[in-house]
């Protein structure tokens, strides 16, 4: 009797495995490439839950397939819904993904931030080597992203005031650095680089306050670039050199 049942159980498990595989594959595809390239805490929870549900359905042959497919479909709807809402609201993005943390600033370690993020020196040295950095003093900014990746911006000799004074200065480089001094306050703490000033047509007043600037200043800057309305701007950022990037809605990016 057991010999007759074994082939049926075997083929039943095989069919269930194939079905669950394609269900999970389609769900991950619908969730988007963001899930493959970056796992935030929310993304990780969704992925783990889908994997656990798939295992439960495969282990319990008496459980109907729909009892596993339906919860996975619900998780897909939750993920797609949250992704749509976070696209529309930066506050929700910060709530789900958190904020990047500055680990190194001007060649100096922020030990308090490292303790808060439970980020040890071995992890730091590993990721600096991956970015081909041999010394902490060579780093202008090192930012721990919400995905756990370390973004490193090395120091540039062109940005050093000593080089400008000693070499007589490059006029274009000097103009950029002078612009940076006017735009970026000396004690400004970079949380994200580049700093968004406008996102999805909405002015980021918090970042303007950190830069000690106003909407009037931003409007004048945009008018110099031929932009008259904040809503026409999809993204406007400024980097640590004071250089602006402007990307208009349904138009080519402008620098």
UniProtKB/TrEMBL annotation:
Family matches, as Pfam families: DUF421 (PF04239)
Entry annotated with the keyword Membrane: yes
Extract the Gene3D superfamilies matched here.
bsu07140 like domains
- Recorded topology in the membrane: Multi-pass membrane protein
Please provide the record's keywords in A-Z order: Cell membrane, Membrane, Transmembrane, Transmembrane helix
Presence of keyword Transmembrane: yes
Domain YetF C-terminal, first and last residues per copy: 87-238
Tell me which GO cellular component terms the UniProt record holds.
plasma membrane
Question: What is the protein's major site of localization?
Answer: membrane
Question: What residue ranges carry the coiled-coil annotation?
Answer: none
InterPro entries, from UniProt?
Answer: DUF421, UPF0702_alpha/beta_dom_sf
Where it sits in the cell: the answer is: Cell membrane
What are the transmembrane regions? 6-27, 39-58, 64-85
Q: Which family does it belong to?
A: Belongs to the UPF0702 family.
Q: What is this protein called?
A: DUF421 domain-containing protein
């Amino acid at each position: 009797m057991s010999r007759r049942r074994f082939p049926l159980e075997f083929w039943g498990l095989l069919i269930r495995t194939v079905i669950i595989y394609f269900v999970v594959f389609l769900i991950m595809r619908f969730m988007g490439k963001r899930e493959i390239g970056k796992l935030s805490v929310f993304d990780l929870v969704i992925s783990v839950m889908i994997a656990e549900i798939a295992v439960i359905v495969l282990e319990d042959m008496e459980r109907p397939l729909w009892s596993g497919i339906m919860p996975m479909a619900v998780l897909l709807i939750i993920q797609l819904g949250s992704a749509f809402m976070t696209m529309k609201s930066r506050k929700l993005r910060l709530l789900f993904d958190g904020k990047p943390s500055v680990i190194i600033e001007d060649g100096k370690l922020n030990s308090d931030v490292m303790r808060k993020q439970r980020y040890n020196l071995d992890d730091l040295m590993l990721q600096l080597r991956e970015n081909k950095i041999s010394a902490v003093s060579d780093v202008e900014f090192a930012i721990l992203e919400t995905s756990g990746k370390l973004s490193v911006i090395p120091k540039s000799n062109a940005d050093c005031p000593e080089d400008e004074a000693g070499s007589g200065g490059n006029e274009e480089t000097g103009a950029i650095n002078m612009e940076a001094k006017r735009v970026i306050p000396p004690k400004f703490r970079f949380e994200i680089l580049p700093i968004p000033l406008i996102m999805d047509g909405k002015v980021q007043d918090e970042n303007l306050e950190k830069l000690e600037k106003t909407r009037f200043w931003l409007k004048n800057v945009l008018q110099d670039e031929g932009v008259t309305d904040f809503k026409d701007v999809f993204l406007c950022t400024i980097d640590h050199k004071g250089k602006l990037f402007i990307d208009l809605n349904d138009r080519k990016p402008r620098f």
